[in-house]
Amino acid sequence: MSPIRLVEAALDGLDLTGLVAATAAGCGRAVSAVLPDLGPPRHAPEGAPGRDGRLLDYAAALRGGAPATLPDGVAGVAPVRIGGSTVGVIAAFGAGPAGAALEPWLEAAAAAAAVIARLGSGEEPGRDGGQNGRRRLLHALESADPAELGRLLERAAASGVELRAGAIGVCALGPADCLEVPTAPAGTLVDAVEPGRVLGLLPAGLAGADVLIDRWLADWRACGADGARSAARTGPGEVQGALWEAALLAELAAGPGLTPLSDAQGDTYRLLVGLFLHTPEAVVALRAGTVEELERYDALHDTELAVTLAAFLAHDGSTTDTAEALGLHRHTVGYRLSRIQEVAGLSPYDSEGRERLSLGLKADRILAADRRRRARWPAAGPGA
Fold it and tell me: What angle, 0 to 180 degrees and rounded to 10, lies between the N-to-C axes of helices 305-314 and 319-326?
């Protein structure tokens, strides 16, 4: 087996024990894998030096973001990353045979271990091109390092799903007992990747894609689920972004607040989500410069300035309609709006201030949706 084949083997059902054995055989050294989420460390051969516990301590320090000291005798180590998080390590010990490459094996093993870890939610491994194969491929495409994306797209193409020209992502969130995987035409990749979460990719330029996706969204909405689609993204490097955009928009639509589905998929939200996926710190800064002080003030004084602002913006700046929606006197709403201006430094009555506050609220909702998404599915794309 070559290093390149390790990721493909993981997609086909290779488990962590088999991965360690294949890596050890390939690089000619003792190899240990420490992924606490998948149980005890694996070693090949069984007497590998990694059994003494120091590698486990090293991996734990990396996972926790603490300073980590590499154990003596380690010839090479590769962190196993899912999204932006380190979830474990692959390490090799000993000198190995002359001329035996080590780095390509460790890097490929770490990428394959990330695939195995991402599938560690109880799915049965299976060497097939059916449901398990679709699920594995979607998981891998969602969480892969950019360096692995090209290989995964080649694998998708070999299975009849050509995404290298770009894709449209879809995502649905809802009750697991009624959220159905839609019937998808050949050449598309759609499946339930976890209970209550459906992901899909349709090739960019697929004839009838918009009509098909609109029907799926309507069906999901009818069963009490929330769904979203990405913009059509072109080029192989944008396929992951299509999945991430759809997933975050679906989480946004499913979340609490005053953001209905149609609004959550509006142009402004889509632009902000796109900005967040490429430059999350810009969206964090937008929130910090607009509504963060309001939320801090509310928490400190048990007030509802942020809620009042959201209602005021949702009712097109009408104090009367806002008062009716919140069950308050119009003068109370007026007082709160004055306090908003004092605390945030932006006037909700002024068009520029109102626009900035509106963007800040949207940024706040996107960041909250991202936190919910990553709490349930830590590997589902980048976060702030």
Answer: 120
- Does residue 9 share a domain with residue 52? yes
| pLDDT more than 70, % of the chain | 89
71 lies in a domain? Answer: yes
Alpha-helix runs per DSSP H in the chain = 3-11, 16-27, 54-63, 103-118, 131-143, 146-158, 209-222, 239-254, 261-264, 267-278, 280-288, 292-301, 305-314, 319-326, 330-344, 351-376
Is 257 part of a structural domain of the chain? no
* Structural domain total, the chain: 3
In a shared domain, residues 189 and 158: yes
Clarify whether residues 238 and 339 are in a common domain.
no
Read off the pLDDT of each residue in 321-332 and give the average, rounded to a whole number.
Answer: 94
Judge contact between 127 and 12, C-beta under 8 A: yes
Q: State the chain's maximal CA–CA distance in angstroms.
A: 83
Domain shared by 111 and 142, yes or no: no
Is 381 inside a domain boundary? no
Q: pLDDT for 265-310, tens place per residue?
A: 478 888 999 899 989 999 999 999 999 999 999 999 999 999 999 9
Tell me which residue range forms the domain holding 47: 3-118
Q: Tokens 């989500």 appear where? A: 273
Q: Are residues 165 and 235 in the same domain?
A: yes
321 & 232 share domain: no
- Using the predicted structure, report yes or no on whether residue 83 has a pLDDT greater than 50: yes
Which tens digits make up the pLDDT trace of 4-49? 788 878 877 788 899 999 999 999 999 999 988 788 889 888 776 6
Q: Quote the CA–CA distance of 220 and 229 in Å, as a whole number.
A: 12
The reply to whether 89 falls in a domain is: yes
**Interior CA angle at 56 toward 55 and 58, to 5°?**
60
Angle at 354 between CA 373 and CA 338, to 5 degrees: 110
Rounded Cα–Cα distance for residues 247 and 198 (Å): 9
What is the rounded distance in angstroms from the CA atom of residue 170 to the CA atom of residue 251?
A: 12
Q: What is the pLDDT of residues 169-179, one digit of tens each?
A: 999 999 988 88
The residue among 145, 206, 144, 122 whose CA lies nearest residue 170 is 206
Of 86, 118, 150, at which residue does a domain stop? 118
Residues 152 and 196 in one domain: yes
**pLDDT, tens only, 118-141:** 765 333 333 344 556 788 888 888
